[in-house]
Task: inverse folding
């Protein structure tokens, strides 16, 4: 595949009014950009806060109701409002200044968490507040991703910065739940939720004081479009549509083995410790893959391996066809995680394809679709496993997903080159 060299993008001219950003020498160079450090610290605080809130709220609801269904619903409510919030709020990511949006979303989440921690808050209100936090989450994530290009430029620094934020989220899955469980041994659930409120407040302060005020990307009358028009503007651009689908659809298949790990491990008699190890395998592989790609490879090399790695990313899951035991299964999941390194090149392709005036909406919709389709993938995996053996479901997902990825890569190749389609709606 022929692609533009990611290192050729000029950060100094990527965004009007932006200071020149030197291309970094690996991840360490990204931290030399002063404005990125508070962004990273704010992300760390908010991610840990969300994980602690999920655990604490689940325990709180279960103790109040004694219902496993209501307890599980608190997790589901982290996914369900995503599609609605991301679709309805996406235009705000371009119509309002980024710092105002980010700080506002943090304050909304802090207020919701503080209300959850109040004694006597009824369960119904707890769930409504959880929905409110999830409703604004895609706007926050999309705006942050778009503003990251303002802070770091649209070249290699952006790719590595986005990779660092993604690794924080992956690491939260590895250590956040353990940390939350430990906190609940010394704090009541409402006390732990107060820490979540403090985390969001800290994030708001860091972003308000540590980042520059920048004008909205599309503040004119033409920017006041409906959410549906914004969706058409993003998906009406042929290359952007192909790259969006390439970001959305592979995770739909990747979550299948994770969703079915417990029944599969139980069927093989794998211990609880073995199950915990398996649950960590794919996130650990993903972190290792991103660290390797970001620190050991050049931007040009990352771009060149994006398509091959994406095409191969689901193939390790074919090991399920032989009903693997713990050692082979662990290896397959780690390899599938390592292949996640292709996302660094995909990030570069995406930010180069997005028109500046659509960047906020595009990034918000990207986050929305990613979270929503992962939830859909988990649900479909569970449904399929009601009728088929788990190993058959996962192996079939690997085959089907690989076919989907190959079709999308073909479309991406067709839209590559000096002539790229634009849609009038995107202008």
Result:
């Amino acid at each position: 595949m022929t692609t533009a060299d990611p290192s050729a993008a000029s950060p100094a001219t990527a965004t009007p009014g932006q200071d020149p950003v030197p291309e970094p020498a690996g991840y360490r160079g990204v931290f030399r950009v002063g404005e990125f450090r508070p962004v990273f610290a704010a992300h760390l605080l908010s991610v840990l806060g969300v994980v602690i809130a999920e655990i604490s709220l689940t325990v709180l609801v279960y103790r109040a109701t004694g219902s496993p269904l209501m307890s599980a619903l608190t997790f589901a409510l982290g996914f369900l409002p995503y599609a609605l919030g991301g679709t309805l709020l996406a235009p705000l990511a371009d119509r309002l200044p980024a710092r105002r949006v980010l700080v506002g979303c943090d304050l909304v989440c802090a207020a919701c968490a503080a209300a959850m921690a109040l004694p006597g808050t009824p369960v119904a209100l707890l769930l409504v507040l959880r929905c409110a936090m999830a409703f604004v989450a895609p706007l926050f994530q999309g705006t942050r991703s778009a503003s990251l290009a303002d802070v770091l430029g649209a070249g290699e620094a952006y790719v590595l910065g986005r990779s660092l934020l993604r690794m924080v989220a992956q690491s939260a899955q590895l250590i956040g739940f353990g940390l939350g469980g430990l906190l609940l041994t010394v704090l009541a659930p409402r006390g732990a939720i107060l820490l979540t409120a403090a985390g969001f407040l800290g994030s708001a302060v860091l972003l308000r004081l540590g980042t520059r005020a920048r004008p909205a990307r599309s503040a004119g009358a033409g920017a006041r479009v409906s959410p549906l028009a914004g969706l058409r503007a993003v998906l009406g651009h042929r290359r952007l549509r192909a790259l969006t689908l390439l970001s959305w659809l592979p995770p739909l298949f990747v979550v299948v083995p994770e969703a079915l790990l417990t029944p599969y491990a139980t069927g093989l008699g794998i211990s609880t410790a073995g199950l915990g190890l398996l649950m960590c395998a794919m996130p650990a592989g993903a972190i290792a893959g991103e660290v390797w790609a970001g620190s050991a490879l050049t931007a040009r090399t990352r771009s060149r391996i994006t398509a091959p790695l994406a095409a191969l990313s689901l193939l390790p899951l074919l090991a399920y066809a032989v009903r693997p035991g713990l050692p082979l299964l662990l290896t397959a999941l780690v390899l599938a995680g390592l292949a996640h390194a292709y996302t660094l090149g995909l990030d570069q392709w995406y930010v180069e394809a997005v028109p500046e005036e659509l960047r906020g909406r595009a990034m918000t919709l990207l986050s929305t679709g990613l979270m929503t389709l992962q939830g859909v993938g988990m649900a479909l995996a569970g449904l399929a496993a009601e009728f088929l053996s788990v190993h058959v479901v996962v192996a079939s997902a690997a085959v089907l997903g690989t076919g989907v990825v190959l079709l999308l890569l073909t479309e991406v190749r067709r839209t590559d080159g000096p002539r790229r389609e634009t849609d009038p709606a995107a202008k």
Notes: The radius of gyration is 21 Å. The first helix runs from residue 11 to 14. Confidence is low (pLDDT under 50) at residues 1-20, 418-427.
